[in-house]
Amino acid sequence: MELRLYSRPFFCLFLLLSTTLISQDFEALQYRTVGPERGGRVTTITGTAMVPGTFYLGASGGGVWKSEDYGTSWTNVSDGFFSTPSIGAIQVATNDPNIVYVGTGSDGLRSNVISGKGIYKSIDGGKTWNAIGLEKVGQIGAVEIDPTNHNIVWVAAIGNAFKANPERGIYKTVDGGKNWEKILFISEKVGFSDLELLPGNPNIVYAAAWKAERKPWTIISGGTKEEGGIYKSINGGKDWIKLEKGLPKGTIGKIDLAVSPVNSSIVYAVIEAPEKERGLYKSVDQGESFEQVSDDIRLVNRPFYYTNIELHPTNPDIIYSNANPLIKSVDGGKTWKRMRVPHGDNHDIWINPNNPELLIQANDGGANVSFNGGKTWSTQFNQPTAELYQVEVDDQYPYWLYAGQQDNYSTIAVPSFPPYAIQDPGRGWIINTGGCETGPAVPKPGDHNTVYANCKGRFGVFNKLTGVEKSYYVGASNIYGHNPKDLKYRFQRVAPVHVSPHNPDVVYHGSQYLHKTDSDGVEWETISPDLTAFEADKQVISGSPITRDITGEEYYSTLYSIRESKLKEGLIWTGSNDGVVSVTKDGGKTWENVTPKKLPKGGRVESVEPSQHDMATAYIAVDRHLLGDGKPYFYKTEDYGRSWRLLSTESNGIPADHNARVLREDPIKKGLLYAGTEFGMFVSFDDGLSWKSFQQNLPVTPITDLKIFRGDLIISTMGRGFWILDNITSLRQDAFVNLKGEPHLFQPDRTIRYRYPKIRDNGAFPKYPRTSVYVDYYLPKKAKEGLKLEILNSKNESVVTIFSDSTSLKSKVEEVEDMNLSQTFRYVTKKLENKKGLNRFAWDLRQKGAWHKEGEKRYKNGPMVPPGKYTVNLSIGGQKLQQSFDIVMDPRVKEEGISQATIEKQLAMQIQVMDLLSKARKLQESLEKEHKSLKEKKGQKKRLDQIDAVLTKLKNNEGAYPQPMLAAQISYLYNMISQADQVLGKDATDRYNELVLLFETINKEAGM
Q1: Phi first, then psi: what are they for 163, rounded to 5°?
Q2: DSSP assignment of 15-72, as one string?
Q3: Is the pLDDT of residue 23 over 80?
Q4: CA contacts within 13 A on the Cβ side of 453
Q5: Helices 966-976 & 986-1005, crossing angle to 10 degrees?
Q6: CB 24 within 8 Å of CB 739
Q7: Are the C-beta atoms of residues 517 and 526 closer than 8 Å to each other?
Q8: CA–CA distance, 656 with 678 (Å, rounded to integer)
Q9: Which residue in 277, 380, 445, 451 could disulfide with 504, CB within 3.0 to 4.6 Å?
Q10: Residues 6 or more apart whose Cβ sits within 8 Å of residue 649
Q11: pLDDT tens-digit profile of 780-825?
């Protein structure tokens, strides 16, 4: 029997754990983005004519972003409001820039397209949004707002990308989205890619019908004459006629429309059709008749993905065509010239009607603004909407993250923490690592400079030191453009690469077979039979009935995931993109098909996960949304695949439309699972019996891969780049699922003592926090009495104490440049949170600093504590909780030759200098107060002169570039010996002794 039954006591325990977890709040555990900064695919854009610096972009997996400074910076405005990150159309009301409508569901129907979930509306320029219906229509091709009444809105619904659905059609609302009427419908297989309102008369409407559907093995774009074409209404959609004169007479595919704003008689249509009938059509009589004016293939190459034309607002002969490439015509479409943009694969363009030289354009690299009609463009390195297929990490310090980035020219890597100083940190810390957009990129364990990279089945070995990639393709044959049934080796675009956890020289690679090399690809061995279902009717030339499209993305019956058990060499699991799970226990000599019997066939096995706690146990994530089934399929086996248990039932926590993407087991805590879905993160503490949302501040976007490494949860997404949840150690502790009515202090994880390099921190992205020990604690109710957290060193000496009370300032970080010292000081003010539930405090490894007369700067900027064993005490009223933890040396510092003794000797000197600085500042403060009080009294000139003389030696004069006096000189020395872990220089020691003598002299002169 496949589904196992559990005894009543176990079920009762499950209920108890679930009840405990339901009351738990994970908000204290926040993710951070680490980029990359460069944008991903943007499928729709718009501007605001009344506010020319304001633009919106809609990303294919990154949501809606807004710029109010001509594209110089972008801010996400859909997070927290939208239930999908896939954007199909954005429109701003002509007469009110605060009114914005967004249709979800990108119209570029790639295999990784994310489902739409209706229409959203903002009445405050994107600050807040409301869902206003059409949740089931699927992908939305266009939204149009009546220019005379922003409550009248039209929507072109393409439909569900992966199956027929009755919600396809043209919709209209007359009350701002409260009610919708479907006013044009053809069939459950035919939707609408575009619609246009006639300028000057919005009751005249044009709509473009499109039969479109994707299968994992092909693209359907187009149908019979009856299933496609252009429709027109002259009475606000009550009645429709089909326009036919001069248009293609046979098979017809995707269509995009444009109506001239200055001559409403002129209508253009770019049409996907068989060769002689494809291209651009023009009407000069509002669609009564059309004439083909161009059959340039660039207008309709990959039409399911591109197909967008726009007209110049003042000249109907100037036309822009977004495809690959972006081309422009100035003679009504007869001839075309290429326009240069920052990235290829173009999707949309908007031209300011009041200033046609100002425009924004969207492509697979993001959105870019031009002030000069497209001669130059704004950067795309300010919109973190990268689509990433997977995540791998290397073993250097700090570790880097690797992935294939869709539409990048190479795989990429970014750091988890700043590795060194750089002038432009976000952009400068993206490096290329071989292969191409699909990846993966897998760093070799023990040698992070060697990266095994893939490009659509082409295996390479990239050397980061030389920047050169060696090519070792299995089969050495170009597989593009083939019928997959004729291929010797079928590779998916995202062909898996996996390095053995037992031998870093052994690499596995998947076609329909499992391939193995121990020579960096110089020689390959095939160690399996065909491990896929290989159904003959799925082995077809992709792209029908018009446009052939064979890039490997639709190659079905290929391996999609590979993992070797860390517990046993030769125990290897594979998953195919047509639903087959296989296992070998002997390194490939024999194989078993262990696909779950109740798993519906044909899904994509996105991940296989051998347990790190039990050899017979494994987990899989299977995605069937490309077959029109959005249910999540997460399974577990405990007997090498002979039987499986479904972990994602209808009622155990993961919504039924959150198709599965990835499932990983915690390597430390058995039964702790992390699941990534199409629309977010989930966690299970009971081995998949129940799930809790683990989204927190993570944006809604597909989770494509997960890694748990050095205590961090590392995530790749299809639209928002990489994210890291630092330090998940508390989740692994037994107390986490047994929290009751008592406070609890979790044991902090060990912390690597990284120093933060001197870089410009603009507070945007990526997010790189200072090194911290994360102290997690649970409060059963809000603490009315103040909390106190104290850190003690191994000698039981207090290092730092932090309080929580209602009168404290809010936590903040401030960097202040002191021109007198030519140095920048970082002041951190943090308080303990006392809210009910889980709380987290990040201690920055700094102990108490020098005294300062300003309260907010007092005792800040102290030295970093040395590596060693520490204790944290948390006092809650009369109750005291205690845990121990370790701080370890940065391995790079150790490799440099710096010892523990060196760091401790340096710290002793820092404390001495800091104490001297405190004395000097307190003396200065005391003298200034005395001076102020004596100025009011007679007969105090001698004392006042004495104080003035001392103060001139203690503090700097006012004005620019004063001579640094004693207090500033001590501060200078302190900062000199606190920037790095280092052997103390003799000059620093000698200077300290000089400053001690100077202080003693000045102190005597002050009569103190």
Answers
A1: -160, 160
A2: HHHHHHHHT---TTS--EE----S---EEEEEE-TTSTT-EEEEETTTEEEEESSTTS
A3: no
A4: 31
A5: 160
A6: yes
A7: no
A8: 11
A9: 445
A10: none
A11: 999 888 899 999 999 999 999 998 864 454 555 655 555 555 556 5
In whole angstroms, give the CA distance from residue 65 to residue 126.
Answer: 9
Kindly compute the dihedral angle of the four CA atoms of residues 422, 427, 432, 438, in this order, to the nearest 10 degrees. Answer: 150
What integer best gives the mean pLDDT of the chain? Answer: 93
Q: What are phi and psi of 972, to 5 degrees?
A: -60, -45
Torsion of CA 326, 330, 334, 336, to 10 degrees: -30
CA atoms of 11 and 452, how far apart (whole Å)? 46
Model confidence at 935, pLDDT cuts 50, 70, 90, reads confident
The SS3 of residue 426 is: helix
DSSP-assigned states of every residue in 278-306: -EEEEESSTTSS-EEEE--GGGSSSTTT-
Q: What is the mean pLDDT of residues 879-891?
A: 97
Please tell me the predicted confidence (pLDDT) of residue 670: 97
Token pair listed for 129: 């949004």
pLDDT surpasses 60 at 578: yes
* Better pLDDT: 806 or 867: 867
- 221-254 per-position pLDDT tens digit: 999 999 999 999 999 999 999 999 999 999 999 9
Q: What is the pLDDT of residues 389-447, one digit of tens each?
A: 999 999 999 999 999 999 998 999 999 999 988 888 888 899 999 999 999 999 999 99
CB < 8 Å & 24+ apart, contacts of 429-432? 429/35, 429/766, 430/35, 430/36, 430/37, 430/38, 431/464, 432/408, 432/467
Nearest-10 crossing angle of helices 941-954, 986-1005: 170
- Say how many C-beta atoms besides its own lie within 10 A of residue 945's C-beta: 10
CA gap 494, 559 in Å, rounded: 9
Strand 868-876 to strand 787-792: parallel, antiparallel, or no bridges (unpaired)?
antiparallel
DSSP character string of 748-768: PPPEEEPPPP-----SSSS--
| Secondary structure letter of residue 267 according to DSSP | E
State phi, psi for 944 to the nearest 5 degrees. Answer: -65, -40
Residues with Cβ within 8 Å of 936's Cβ and at least 6 positions away in sequence, in order, are none
Complete edge-to-edge strand list for the sheet that includes strand 400-404: 392-393, 400-404, 411-415, 431-432
- SS3 (DSSP) at 968: helix
Those residues with Cβ within 8 angstroms of residue 910's Cβ, 6 or more apart along the chain or in another chain: 863, 974, 977, 978
Beta-bridge partners for 592? 583
What are the φ and ψ backbone dihedral angles of 183, each rounded to 5 degrees?
-110, -5
Residue burial 322-338, b: 16+ Cβ < 10 Å; e: rest: bbebbbbbeebbeebee
Answer positive or negative: Cα dihedral of 632, 638, 644, 649. negative
CB contact set of 250 (below 8 Å; sequence gap of 6+): 224, 225, 273, 274, 277
Q: What's the distance, Cα to Cα, between the start and end of the chain in Å?
A: 89
- Tell me how far apart the alpha carbons of residues 979 and 987 are, in angstroms, rounded to a whole number: 16
User: Against a cut of 0.90, is the pTM above it?
Assistant: yes
| Distance from the Cα of residue 561 to its chain's centroid | 22
777 forms bridges with which residues in the sheet?
Answer: 745, 839
Distances (CA, A) of 902 to 751, 876, 886, 890, 908: 19, 37, 19, 14, 10
Tokens 């205590």 appear where? 711
Distance CA 943, CA 406 (A): 75
Backbone angles phi, psi at 826, to 5 degrees: -110, 120
Q: What's the average model confidence in pLDDT over 948-965? A: 91
